[in-house]
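Q: What would this complex look like in 3D?
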Amino acid sequence: MMQSDKTPIRTRMAPSPTGDMHVASMATLLKNYAFAKRHQGQFILRIEDTDKVREVEDGVNKIQSIIKQYGLDWDEGPGKDGACGPYIQSQRLEIYQEKAKELVEQGQAYYCFCSKERLDEVRQQQQASHQPPRYDGHCRHLAQAEIEKRLAAGENYVIRLKVPENQEISFTDLLRGKITFNSNQVDDQVLLKSDGYPTYHLAVVVDDHLMKITHVMRGEEWISSTPKHILLYRAFNWSQPIFAHFPLFLNPDGKGKMSKRKGTVSAQSFLDKGYLPEAVLNFLMILGWAAKDQKEIMSLAEYIQEFDPADLSMNSVIFDIHKLDWLNGIYIRNLSREELKKRLQNFIPPEFPLDKLDQILDLVYERLVTLADFSELTDFFYKEIDYSPTLLLKKAENQEDLVLEQIQLTKNIFHSLADFTTLELEKEIRILQEKQAWQKAQYFMMLRIAMTGKTATPPLFETIDALGRELASQRLDLATKKIKNHEKTEDNSL
Ligand code: GLU
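A: Here is my prediction, written as structure tokens for the whole assembly.
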């Protein structure tokens, strides 16, 4: 490879603003970022916005915002000028046009005037005779005089690469070793479109060269494009960067490339679901890679010290969402109380009684897998509850009178307690249960259901305390009503 030890390492991420960034792209970005930082190099962000049809509104801003939300940044790129700007391809059109024409002058590329209709016809014929679709070279050998005449007449044209016949194209992938193609497999691809925009292939090679990128590290789906890029490096007589192609992420069920159909895929949607960015990053670090001491929980700084793309497994990796859940829980519980409250802000519904936030947080925070769980785990504190009366009668079937008595006596305690506190509640309610010789499991489950409508909740006495005397009493009234209505419907069905 033509990199000398002194060449500063420069990596890049080159997203297209065609939709929300995929979490696999965030993983690629993280690796490029960490590798550059590890070697005191630079990480460049370049926006590849040459496909104006697929571009989404605000796409360029969204890319920048999601990278920052994950706590990452770039050394050169939009808003951070280095010596190689601009870093948005639509602002570099003249450069690509000039480079494409340079190739034409050197006989490495040619003007093609074929109409869409003609190209369609060629494709159909190839399909009919089961040949792979490719350009048939019609304009490859036009006479110079004809080319000039047609250009002067203002005919539409594209510029195509003149792919040499039967040449070996190979490169050494950092993960996969030597990969070889034959140039006969490569089409005379379009470099410059008729609207003056470059194709991805031309723009990516020109920019990676002009931006002095030393390592092109991207997803495995780009391997088949690499021979096209290598042919371009050769045509320009430029040295090739080092290539690495990272493995795909598979769906959590292990089947197929990670896709929207099977769950969350965009980097943004993980944050919206209440995953902490640092937990997702940690998870992305250990997908298909392990630290020397096998530790799984690591900070960005620790990762930067160790990460080497050559250590990556080249097998596809399953996006194991359970592992992410586990990591997220750990990161949540490592936050200070103040920080946790700050992060929860967007996940707390407007009806939530903020004066009780600390008290309620104490009860549920051990059980938070994501920040979004907070509202589901706590909704009974501020929302009306509903449940089936049969739940109240569990282990006390046909004993409506017993349950009604339990509710009444419990209510008496709620009313008579001087201090409505966890301690007092627990003391008096336990005395009551023992005195009445009520079956413990039955009574406490009934009370849990009456208070929350759920079978699994935070500790019962703390929960009643947090509900407060008034709401807790109202919940007992609701339970009474439910049992009485239940009795009535039972009678009617006799
Ligand atoms: N613009 C391409 C993308 O959207 C970049 C591919 C590459 O890294 O070469 O992913």
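A: To summarize the key features: The radius of gyration is 33 Å. The chain has a mean pLDDT of 95.
Q: Very helpful, thank you.
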